[in-house]
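Possible regression after last week's pipeline update?

I re-ran a chain I had predicted before the update to compare outputs. Posting the input and the new output here so someone can diff against the archived version. Not blocking, just want to make sure nothing changed silently.
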Amino acid sequence: MTDHTKRVALLGIPVDIGASQRGTLMGPDALRTAGLPAVLEQLGIAVEDHGNLTIAGAPVADDPPPAKAKQYRDIQTWTRTISPHAHKLMQSGATPLFLGGDHSLAMGTINGVARHWQAQGRELFVLWLDAHADYNTPMTTISGNMHGMSSAFLCGEPGLDGLLGNAEPRAAITPSQLGLFGIRSIDPLEKVLVHERNIPLVDMREIDEFGVGVPIRQTIERVKARNGVLHLSFDVDFLDPTLAPGVGTTVPGGATYREAHLIMELLHDSGLVRSVDIVELNPFLDERGRTARVVVELIASLFGQQITDRRTPSNAIFPGR
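New output (post-update):
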């Protein structure tokens, strides 16, 4: 580990129009208020806070919007704004931590991150911690909400081809580079598409049978086998709603406190995570900041906080170059 790699760049992305329940635009500031920068600094990490992104004054496209893609024009503007910012942060050498905002922001963050790693000749894998697969397209969606289309867009599924257009290079990943983890809610046609694409998927039944350690280690080994790097896209509704009520799309039967911490600890030990989304935190629905505090504790585990020194070789989330 080298000191110059121990840098985290925070970027708030206050978008909430991709979901039916408004309020996630308050998520970035709620995470700051819950102490995220201070917790990272206590771990010896230099924190660069780039504030909150805005689309005020951004150019608006005029391509025909697809049917059944709500708020398409605004999401398009957000995606075209987010992607170059994400790419720039990756090039800075810091570990970007994107604070959302609903999960539609991942269409921009991961595209920008993937651009960086494609130029480096490295494969980017995405671990999608979420109650939902978010693999709908305008042709399969029931709700039309675009936060449910974000992982499908990343894998190049048709229907949202104009989202980036010529404004920003599109850097799609393959379905094999996406890992859906913790899934417990999926639409009928979406399920068919996920099956057809043979996307690696760990649902809550598998977690019930084997725990989180076995499938997370399998994910880590799959990335290592291809000399890849990992982007963590963490939807707060991955957690059980009794633990994290501050989300707009609660689904019973989610991850427990210790299961979630173990995932973060194993990811830290792997040294593979180079960028992170935190999405769908809705402070309007939270109970006195309880969900935000839990999320901050989990991110602390991801970045190396532990109770005792386990004496394991750990190049951590900041491996030496």
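Follow-up from reviewer: compared with the archived run. The longest strand covers residues 7-13. Marking as no regression found.
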